[in-house]
Amino acid sequence: MRRACAALLVCGSLVLSNAVGFAAGPEPIPLWPNGAPGAKGNAEIDTPAVRIYPAAEANATGACVVVLPGGGYRHLAMDHEGQQIAAWFNSIGVTAAVVSYRLAPNYGHPSPMLDAQRGIRYVRANAEKLKIDPNRVGVMGFSAGGHLASTVSTLFDAGDSSSSDPIDRQSSRPDFSILCYPVISLKSSFTHGGSKKNLLGENPDPALVEKLSTETQITKDTPPTFIFHTAEDKAVPVQNAIVYFEALQKHGIASEMHIYQKGPHGVGLAPKDPVLSTWKERLADWLKINGFLSTTKRAAISGSVELDGEPLPRGTITFIPDDKNAPTAFAMVSRGKYSLDEKSGPAIGKNNLIVCSLGAGMLSPTVEKLEIWEAPKHPFVCQVASGRNVLDLQLTK
Questions:
Q1: Measured by CB atoms within 10 angstroms of the end CB, which terminus of the chain is less buried, N or C?
Q2: Count of Cβ atoms closer than 10 Å to residue 370 Cβ
Q3: Which residues, in sequence order, are CB contacts of 199 under 8 Å at separation 6+?
Q4: What are the Cα distances from residue 339, in Å, to 166, 208, 318?
């Protein structure tokens, strides 16, 4: 028993040592080399900074995400909500910029917001150096960092075109937003009281509370948003994510939300949880279908599908581009017809096709199994051009 306990302690020590070494990451770059606005000193706590984790040239997509770790506006979870997230983004070809923003008790609003906005402006101003696309810069936040990410996604500006500082001339609006178990509403019963107090103090102005309840600030210009939360979250109730998503839908903002039944607060990547850890794959899918991992444009397409000379009663058609980072497209076939507009159509260029017959029966089955036409048995390939495309297919059993 003693030997077993000793072995466990040694293993634990090794894990801790590795984690500390990995956490160091790149050197922090001060966001304001001459001092941040409203800074009360020049110590580390007074100096908001960014750490850049560049994607490898071999798989770089040109996309960049500014990452805002959580911690209740009093601490920063720089490991599991910072550098570990950056490493995952690098694995899918995305450059990450992890921001250490100012915190309570020394700083409250608007300092964290100014720091996060500056992080977005910084990567845009240095896009050429960082080898990123300034039009594919997103923001991602966890917990209180999620509130901060939602704040810069709703309270943004176009930059100061007259500024002598090239960073200040950049827009602070993210091109997309990723919110992970976020604090959202500061005015509701389900708010996270600690984050509210640390950001706004003991007796905040009700008007400011309303303004920073970000579900109230969504407009048609709010960026597309991905949200991940868990129903079991006791620290930041899932209602925070729900009210934000509902407001996004009300304003017609492209958005996707995943609420997992099981899981506590603050899971980060949820490593080794075979269910909860899949949220990152859902995020990768969302980034791809919205075109954030590629500059390839979409095009409209329509046409017909016949099976043995008759219109395919009910089926699907999928367009898979050669560019693995470009968006796929999927359409239902009904009575032999399908149609996709430019917003949801296939990527311009070479696409591989997959057609499925779903059968014709409504009251009784008509097929024994799903019939599929795809490579290599049926190598359907099409070249999608800009504008409107017409593609008719004739299939045989």
A1: N
A2: 10
A3: 73, 104, 108, 109, 112, 144, 147, 186, 212
A4: 45, 47, 12
Q: Which pLDDT does position 97 carry in this prediction?
A: 98
Q: Provide the residue type at 179 as one letter.
A: L
169-192, pLDDT tens digit by residue? 999 999 999 999 999 999 999 999
Q: Kindly report whether the global pTM for this prediction surpasses the value 0.70.
A: yes
Distance CA 215, CA 155 (A): 11
Q: What is the dihedral of CA 33, 69, 117, 213, to 10 degrees?
A: -140
Give yes or no for a contact between 185 and 176, defined as CB atoms under 8 angstroms apart: no
Alpha helices in the chain (DSSP H): 2-23, 84-91, 111-125, 127-130, 144-154, 193-200, 206-211, 239-250, 279-289
352 exposure class (CB count in 10 Å sphere: 0-12, 13-18, 19+): middle
DSSP 8-state code for residue 79: I
Tokens standing for residue 40: 């009360």
pLDDT score recorded for residue 290: 97
Q: Low-confidence residues of the chain, pLDDT below 50?
A: 1-23
Contact assessment for residue 174 and residue 139, using Cβ atoms and an 8 Å cutoff: yes
- Residue 53 contacts residue 67 (beta carbons within 8 Å): no
Question: Can you tell me the distance from the alpha carbon of 288 to that of 291, in angstroms, rounded to the nearest whole number?
Answer: 5
